[in-house]
Specification:
This protein has 6 helices and 18 strands. The protein is α+β, with helices and mostly antiparallel strands. Strands 7-8-9-10-11-1-2-3-4-5-6-12 form a 12-stranded mixed sheet, covered by helices on one side.
């Protein structure tokens, strides 16, 4: 599904001096974060590129309402959900008009694309490859779609900022330039050695407060393992018709029931969420762990199955007591033989310990 992209060195590196003649006014970390909060009125059209350097095949993308990206609220839930946002390389066209109108078009091969279209609380997902559509009504106006493949730098930055706790050092680095725009370089550095994350660099547009890029560097690494950022950006409201979606003739349409807080599921055409054990987050801050229980009798266990069904990913996973461990520079996933799945921005040993403690 993912389309690998090559990002030119320097476009998103986050260390280049800004090209503007006048430097941005000095701001403290708190002031830069406050500036980000003013971006609700930003309207733009842009090209977004996301790339990973994990040394693994493309990870399966989670569905609109399933998987880690929709599985938890608050700082701990945000950390545990980030793995879903880091899963795939892609190039996208992004259109936004204020806080509640968004369209993301993701290239899905030479002749196909995926679309996410949001107007207020109304969200549509469409894949031209199989002419399938899914519809979701958000529970609150500010709730994200939960689809990792349509995450923007603002989505990703928001999750990392939600994860920042007293064990996080926050500073402002040298001014940077992204997509031709001068930006503040907000740096988050976990102080604990129990996470795989070394540093997060968020480029914040000096004029609008819009996050322009996010880079994540693993602990001890010299270069980022993950980059997501704009390569082109034009301010101004796009055509309003871009935020209206009508399923094409002949397409299959599925209604999605949004999960309750702390619950992740994909119920298809059902109007009633399934009962049974819910995903849980243990720990706190950067060391929190998401634990997805084994599926009930007759269930599919889509998350674990999607990982192990791919022969390349299955080969990359290593056998550990009670299951298989898939490791990347930034996050690990543990698939237990009993059907449970654990994930986090932590070393595999922490996932194994969490799995043992939950037995």
């Amino acid at each position: 599904m993912a389309v690998p992209v090559v990002i030119a060195a320097g476009v998103l590196v986050g260390t280049l001096p800004a090209g503007a003649a006048d430097p941005l006014p000095a701001r403290t970390p708190a002031q830069v974060i406050e500036l980000m909060g003013t971006r609700t009125a930003v309207s733009f059209t842009g090209t977004l590129e996301q790339a990973t350097d994990f040394g693994l095949p493309d990870l399966p993308a989670a569905g609109p309402s399933s998987g880690p990206a929709a599985a938890g609220d608050g700082p701990a839930g945000s950390v545990a959900s980030i793995a879903g946002l880091l899963a795939a390389d892609h190039t996208a066209r992004v259109y936004a008009d204020g806080p509640a109108k968004l369209r993301v078009q993701v290239a899905d091969g030479s002749f196909a694309e995926r679309n996410m279209v949001r107007r207020g609380t109304d969200v549509w997902f469409y894949a031209s490859k199989d002419n399938s559509a899914a519809h979701l009504v958000l529970q609150a106006p500010d709730r994200g779609s939960g689809d990792p493949s349509t995450a923007t730098p603002a989505d990703i930055a928001g999750r990392f900022l939600a994860a920042a706790d007293p064990d996080t050092e926050i500073s402002v680095g040298a001014e940077v330039e992204v997509a031709g725009r001068a930006a503040y370089n907000l740096l988050l550095e976990p102080r604990t050695a129990d996470t795989l994350v070394g540093r997060i660099a968020i480029a914040v547009d000096g004029e609008t407060g819009l996050p322009l890029s996010v880079q994540v560097t693993a602990r001890g690494a010299a270069t980022p393992a993950f980059r997501s950022g704009f390569t082109a950006l034009a301010l101004g409201a796009p055509d309003d018709s871009l935020f209206t979606f009508v399923p094409p003739a002949g397409s299959s349409v599925r209604e999605i029931v949004p999960p309750a807080p702390g619950l992740s599921h994909d119920v298809g055409d059902s109007e009633t969420p399934p009962s049974g054990p819910r995903p849980a987050v243990t720990g706190s801050g950067w060391t929190s762990v998401l634990a997805v229980p084994a599926p009930a009798a007759g269930g599919t266990g889509a998350g674990a199955n999607a990982l192990l069904a791919d022969p390349l990913l299955s080969q990359a996973a290593v056998d550990v007591p009670g299951g298989k461990l898939l490791s990347t520079p930034l996050f690990t996933v543990l698939v237990m033989a009993d059907g449970r799945l654990l994930a986090g921005l932590v070393p595999g040993e922490r996932l194994q310990a969490a799995a043992a403690a939950a037995q």
